[in-house]
Amino acid sequence: MSDDSFLDSIRFSVTAALSLLAFVTILVGGGYYMYRWAAPKYEEAQRETYEQSRQHVEGTVEDLMRYRVKYQEADSTHKDAVRKLILRRA
Fold this sequence. Notes:
Keywords: Membrane, Transmembrane, Transmembrane helix. The protein is mainly α. It contains 3 helices and no strands.
């Protein structure tokens, strides 16, 4: 094996390794930026779906009904606090 072919094989190996490293870096970086763009949209869709679900709506209605009863039973000093809680929850 001559020195030229040995150096050529070393150059090829180093070039292939650097190319693979650059390719993997681009893939990982692209995946990160894609996640950064897509994750908020995915979470927003999940949140909207949950807020429109029957379970969430019925739970909110039940909570508000309980708060109404607490408001009606509360004395005048606590009514303002219960009112603020109801307004924040609604």
